[in-house]
Amino acid sequence: MKRTIENITYKKDTEELARFAKALGHPTRIEILKHLENQSCCFTGDLVEVFPLAQSTISQHLKELKDAGLIDGELKPPKIKYCIDEKNWKKAKKIFTKFFS
Amino acid sequence: MKRTIENITYKKDTEELARFAKALGHPTRIEILKHLENQSCCFTGDLVEVFPLAQSTISQHLKELKDAGLIDGELKPPKIKYCIDEKNWKKAKKIFTKFFS
DNA sequence: CAATTAAATCGTTTATTTACGATATACAAA
DNA sequence: TTTGTATATCGTAAATAAACGATTTAATTG
């Protein structure tokens, strides 16, 4: 990316907001989250049926949402149940609300 | 990006939210917007002084914010005055609020 | 019309993202 | 212990993003 020599540091709030926003920055991920909001939880396989995307692609999107802290996976072998991470969801909501106020 | 053959179509709401979110998905752009919120408007040059980034890089970020509709540029030759686009700002606020509710 | 000034755009490099198919992993049940 | 199933991870290709310096553009002033 050809970064500037000494990496810029941003305020923690800024980093956090950008991080959440970035995770929300793809329509598929928005749809996944909407889906999770509707039915509280679901398995990877459910989403693979809903979207015309490869299983690996869905899994990748889930990983990003998880890395951003927006969702949480619970082992229900051999499946994995994904839910909104309520704590971080509230946090994101708060940060966005504050930002737009 | 190796897209699926027939492009996926998303709901308009989803596309819009993802678009706004993507624009917010970089800390520099968040900081630019915070700056604009504080002092309502500013010139490109002001931002170049604030951030340790090249003028062209700042300009690029401004373009993205403008393309997303979050800011608006007004000619004040030889400068350009950037302000928050209030209409779309409200729209974004509404969309995010709805999404998180 | 020429010079100045501020910002945009161009061309380039490197990093990251998005997508895929193929393969590996983890756990339950047989 | 092997088999089956659901999901993650790997490897890869193509697109996009982020940064830079150099150049161009647009408008005012001399």
Q: Quick recap of the structure?
A:
The structure is a homodimer of 101-residue chains. With 101 residues, the first copy, chain A, is α+β, with helices and mostly antiparallel strands.
Task: Record keyword descriptors for this entry.
globular; 101 residues; DNA-binding; homodimer; 15% strand; 3-stranded antiparallel beta sheet; alpha+beta
Question: How is this fold's topology laid out?
Answer:
Two copies of one chain form a homodimer.
Chain A: H1 12-23, H2 27-39, E1 41-43, H3 44-50, H4 55-67, E2 71-76, E3 79-84, H5 86-100
Antiparallel strand pairs in A: 1-3, 2-3
Helix pairs in contact in A: 3-4
The first copy, chain A, binds a DNA duplex (30 and 30 nucleotides) through residues 1-4, 26, 28, 43-45, 48, 53-64, 75, 77-80.
**Which H/E pattern describes the elements of chain A?**
HHEHHEEH
Largest sheet of chain A: 3 strands, antiparallel
Oligomer: homodimer
| Tally of individual helices of chain A | 5
Question: Judging from the principal axes of the Cα atoms, what is the shape of chain A?
Answer: globular
The stretches of 5 or more residues of chain A where confidence is low (pLDDT under 50) are none
> Roughly what is the average pLDDT of chain A, rounded to an integer?
94
Structural class of chain A: alpha+beta
Tell me how many strands of chain A there are.
3
Q: Approximately how much beta-strand content do the residues of chain A carry? A: 5-15%
The helix content of chain A, as a percent range, equals 55-70%
Q: Which two chains share the most extensive interface?
A: A-B, 32 and 32 residues
* First and last CA, distance of chain A: 33 Å
What is the C-alpha radius of gyration of chain A, as a whole number of Å? 15 Å
Arrangement of strands in the largest sheet of chain A: 1-3-2
